[in-house]
Amino acid sequence: MIRFIDVHRDQFGVEAICCVLSATDCGFLTSRGYRAAKQRPSSARALRDEVLIGEIRRIHAENYGVYRYRKMHQAMRRAGWDIGRDQTARLMKVVCLEGVRRGREALTTTPSGVPDRRPDLVERDFTALGPNHLWVADITYVRMPTGFCYTAFITEVCTRRLVGWAVAASLHTEALPLQALEHALLSTRAEASSSGLVHHSDRGSQYVSLAYSDALITAGVKASVGTVGDSYDCQSLSTRFRKDWGVPADAV
């Protein structure tokens, strides 16, 4: 309650706050009692809390603000601090520190209900003799405060370069992977010299749709799809490239 009055005293005044709050809310605290409490020296617990709060702030910032109280408690213990889990939660609440809560996983690959006879021309051999011989397409997501943001990208295997990408709030074919394909064709000018170019993807409905298939045929690009039920074909390649690019493995 003392801290609450400290925060709002300049706006409302101590007398007004103590009069408005009920006896249960303020614990029978009067303006005179508030001033007496402010004059008392800090207790040993309060002084230790200030030290612990400083360390909690530091560890929280060093870990990009993702630690909640359980991981923060473990980190504090590893750093040599004698602190309980409930105490960690209390101090984090005092300074309004929150971590990242795990939510539901985004669905990026929706199996197609239409039979697909296109072959697997890659068979998990992600190598290429030269540029624009093999493209690999995949979809990932970024968690946002209001939901998910989806990203479709196409990787040129020989140079390990992203040649096409698109971002959208949904997984509709017209809005996401098709735009990434158009971007790749435009950025590499592969449409005019695409002899032997293979486009590999999983069997998700976005990639086996009529619109996407027509775009590949028009560009003269050979379509290749991964093994049924194995969505890790393209994902394993993108994970491997992330290591080469220096991107953290847990970045999505």
Structure description:
The chain is α/β, with parallel strands linked by helices and 252 residues long. It has two domains: 2-94, no CATH class; 134-245, Ribonuclease H-like superfamily/Ribonuclease H (Nucleotidyltransferase, domain 5). It has ten helices and five strands; from the N terminus they run αααααααβββαβαβα. It has helices at 2-12, 14-20, 23-26, 31-39, 44-62, 69-78, 85-94, 177-188, 210-219, 232-245, and strands at residues 134-144, 147-156, 161-168, 198-201, 222-225. It has a five-stranded mixed beta sheet, sandwiched between helices. Helix 9 links the parallel strand 4 and strand 5. Helix 1 (2-12) crosses helix 2 (14-20) and helix 8 (177-188) runs parallel beside helix 9 (210-219). It is elongated and about 85 Å long. It starts with a helix and ends in a 7-residue tail after the last helix. 24% of the residues are buried. Involved in the transposition of the insertion sequence. This is Transposase InsO and inactivated derivatives. Residues 127-233 form the Integrase catalytic domain. It comes from Brevibacterium jeotgali.
